[in-house]
Amino acid sequence: MRRLLFRLFFCLAASGAYAQDITSAYTQIDVRKECKHREGRVEEDYGDWRCRGYAGVPMWFGAGDQRMYVSFGKKAADEPAAGETLGPFNDFYKGTIEWRLADGKPFATIMRWSYKTPAEIDRNTANGRMLVVTRLPPGAVCHVGYVDARANPDANELAREIADKHARGFVCGKDRPVTLGKTTPEGR
Length: 188
Hints:
- The chain is an alpha+beta fold.
- The protein has one domain.
- The strands form two sheets. Strands 1, 6, 7, 8, 9, 10 and 11 form a seven-stranded mixed β-sheet that branches. It has a four-stranded antiparallel β-sheet with strand order 2-3-4-5.
- A hairpin with a 7-residue loop joins β9 and β10.
- The protein is globular and about 45 Å long.
- The termini are far apart.
- The N terminus is likely disordered.
């Protein structure tokens, strides 16, 4: 029995599963109040915002044509995530960011974006909710996956699963983002 337990421990340690402690940290943000804003230059360009996130990670938010873009890192505005958004009109100006950490270092974020369903476009409401999982540096920054928060009562757990299983090995521009759980007709 001891020999079996030793082998199991050795295999887990060798595979890295035992060595990595995956946890979460949470930050609240109000982009319009807490970040440096640079005005847009043309109609429907709302400008961009630069902020600091968990452990000083640089964050970049861009907005235009009723859509939001979010990226991270020293060159956040040049990363693939700076050009990725949801299809419907959407935003993330204010909310909670969940930072997924491996051994205390952030490797992904989970953010609950709001989006407008077709019935809401002419009204000033947004009932859609999509959890967006984004890969963090080192390496390129991009969307790794999506979970429709309206259709899945366990949306946070599904988003964590995407982050933990896919974010660190995800190749931006090559791998396709993962969608877990059910989706509403308006969902991605």
